[in-house]
Amino acid sequence: MSAFDAAVGRDGPNHVERAQGSPDIQHSAKHAAYALASKRIIAGYGFWIFLLSDIVMFSAFFATYAVLVDATAGGPSGQGLFDLGNVGIETACLLLSSFTCGLAGIGARTRNGFWFYGAMAATFMLGAAFLSIEIREFMGMIALGAGPTRSAFLSAFFTLVGCHGLHVAIGLLWLLTMMAQVFAKGYRADILRRLLCFSLFWHALDIIWVGLFTMVYLMGVTQ
Amino acid sequence: MSHAEQDEDSHYVDTAPGDESLDGYEAAEEIRTYLVGLGLATLLTLVSFFINRTALVWEPSIPVALAVLAIAQMGVHLVFFLHITTGPDNVNNVLALAFGVLIVLLVIVGSLWIMAHMNHNMMPIDQIMQMQS
Description:
The complex is a heterodimer of chains A (223) and B (133).
Chain A: H1 3-8, H2 13-20, H3 25-35, H4 39-68, H5 78-81, H6 84-109, H7 113-143, H8 152-185, H9 189-222
Helix pairs in contact in A: 4-8, 4-9, 6-7, 6-9, 7-8, 8-9
Chain B: H1 2-14, H2 24-53, H3 62-81, H4 91-121, H5 125-132
Helix pairs in contact in B: 2-3
């Protein structure tokens, strides 16, 4: 069995079942198309592996933060620095942007320009709102003398949260690129695959944010 | 329409049928999935923020409750937004996810465990100072 077969999962038990249940020729032709997994599924799988490696990288930052959370070197701790109101707004922005990003994908696949561009624009606005709130929070902390150089806790905090913010910023650039590509090239199969990868990326950012607001902000305030 | 022609062609070359175009009914179905996901995720987020402030819950249990809620919400995101399912097309995605979760757990639990032990075994800081002087 070649590596390609393994990646595609051609020999999965469900395929055998499907083939047995379909004696007519038309259906088995359709089955042949399924047996060679579509490029869409392979591209999604490849990008999913990239995302998992990204999540593994974040897990190292999370572990660093968890180890250093009490190492405040006499400086401020999370309790005095974090504002849960801000974090709630950020969470709402990111969650809604995940939803609108899904709508944009549906809009693209139904070839509905209004839905696609509208939902992408909404995703961009929500992501930009998230990012600006986060940057304002960082600036406020640095102005209070609680910058990344103050203590090991704050170094770990800025690395972890900043790395997530950087991902959001890159995601916003990618979002604009996708809008431009659809505008210039139309709903071509390869463009739709890129769009699939983008929406996977955006949803994964939201998953990381769930871990972040729970572990850093909520647990940081209760401590 | 040149786009339409290109679409017809690329359908045969690149994709399985029905992969990348939806009719109205399928689109409504998918939107419903996203709405369910959004509702569940919002609910879990609200409970997380609420449980953090309330005095109703026994206090030492709060971090555990927060962790459980976060993991549940990650599951909701995976199923409803990233569409990681148990379907035949998804076997490889699920296996990759399982491996990723294993590595993440090893890194986080392993780091915390080892560092807690090292902290515990370290000499108190004032004694280290005395030895240096």
